[in-house]
Amino acid sequence: MAGSKSKKRSKKSRGTASRPTPRRQQLTPATTVAHIPLELPEPAPDNPPLNEWIVRYLTIYQEYLIGAANKGVEFGEPYQHDDACREVKERLREKGVTFRNGEASIVHGDISTACIACTGGDSQSFFYSLRCPKNCFFCFNHNQNNYAGYLDDDRDWRSELAAIMEAGRPMTHLALTGGEPLMRPDEACAFFEIARANWPDAHLRLYTSGEGLTREIMERLVAAGMNEIRFSIKLDVDTILTPQDFEFIRMSCEFPVSTMVEMPVMPGTFDQMTGILRELDALGAFGINLLEFCYAKHNWPEFAKRGFKVKNPPFTVLYDWGYAGSHPIEGSDLECLRLLEYAADQGLRLGVHYCSLENKHRDQVYQMNHMAPFSNPCFAMDDGDFYWKTCKVFGADVAPVRRLLESVDAAGRLWSYDAEDDCLAFNSQLRDRVLELPVRVMTSANILVKYPEGVMLRELGLFD
Q: What is the pTM (predicted TM-score) of this model?
């Protein structure tokens, strides 16, 4: 994990903090706050205590990027498409498109309930094998844990389902993915039969390329309880799609299930993708999930020969993210936003959902920050990205902020001072008031991590 070199950075909190002796309670601490966007900070040479922390975090990030570059990965220009993305987002807001999860999930029209449950529901995906007849150069599965092992040996999904049943989890959404699940249709049908028998009201979905799907197998899947099927369409920068590429989707639309496409969007494929949107709309498909195109730490020469580069910086928050997609490719986010705008302008009935890499990370943050109870009046959970957040000021900024906070929170319940770091932390509900002062307010993003000694809070960075 990048950042483990810094002793201060790995400081852990059990949810308690030193603060002045309470005099009287004036404010009730907020446990959740409206989304506070995060931006990587610039150094603060005029504020040494703050600058020390900023330099620590930026150095860790720089070491991470250098490590990736030393493995041959090429990065784009810093913030290359950020301005263009902001402009498209503003137009999308004016057109009534829905923004979710702190702008990481953006939707025109309807969205699958499974996508909503990804951050906030009892949802889980399973696979029995990572074998697949396709050979997509960008396949994320190469970055899965034990990828080679699951090519040869099956994963015991039956035992995994049984463990969830025994634990009494009220699952609302379950999925079967791969590899290609339809390489063994009997196994796929068995999954849905067992899931439906144990969770009668759950939403059940299948991920497939469509390889091996027949009308008979589709009938069996529906009879077994499948509610939704998501097809991937193999697309490259020079692909010319034909009606045959939509045969599986056309057949699926005849059945009482939600038929969707889910696929990463390569830069430079706007024309092919608009053709896909129009065809899906004409077929009556439920929707399409546009995924940010990613480099999964495998097969970089294939990316390089197409002129692709990794987005720079690849993430706002650096962490050991579990999603196999790993690194976003520069320009994919802008292409996805343009496709959303196209769908809105054309008035497509098709639901179009942009699920960014950041949205995949939102799922992990949500799960980690709900693994155990946490209570500290200085912290509140951001309702957009699900980090536990607190605001901080350092050095010369501490005194004026402390005077203000003492005037509005005399009990000292929502703030605390750390003399070692010369830092004052306070609940984000007070942020707007503090920003009226000529001080630099940093946002601290945190997650709960399970250590041998227990679940503790870990700061991942300071952000403007």
A: 0.91
